[in-house]
Amino acid sequence: MSGRKLLQILLVFVAFVLAAAPASASDYYLWDAIPGTTWHDVDKTVANTDDDNLCWAAACSNVLDWGGWDSGALDTEAAMFEAFQNHWTDDGSYMSYGWDWYLNGTLPPRPGRLGAG
Questions:
Q1: What is the pTM assigned to this prediction?
Q2: Residue 76 domain-assigned?
């Protein structure tokens, strides 16, 4: 069987599978597709007005809470974000540095320039 014929059969098969699968709005959103999960979204405008550059920390908090890394007093994404506000300066940084700090206490390589306070 030629490569071209095999490609045509594969494309027809994929088209058939995609057409047979019902589209559902509840499957579009990850938090709806996984039982027991909800939407996590820190409202940083309510939490503190002096956090203009902490969007990365808000997103980091959302992912940590969604992933189940909440514990003790830090039991919501808002509480986690407040911890970032209290321990980091109002500077831009990377979510990966926030996750490292939250999970194991590791500071960024250049703390003065990347938001660690």
A1: 0.61
A2: yes
Encoded tokens for 94: 């990377």
**What are the tens digits of pLDDT across the range 46-88?**
555 566 788 888 889 988 988 888 888 999 888 999 898 888 8
Tokens of 72: 């003790």
Whether residue 69 contacts residue 27, with contact meaning beta carbons closer than 8 Å, is answered with no
- Pick the closest to residue 78 from 102, 95, 61, 55 (CA basis): 61
For 97, the domain range is 40-113
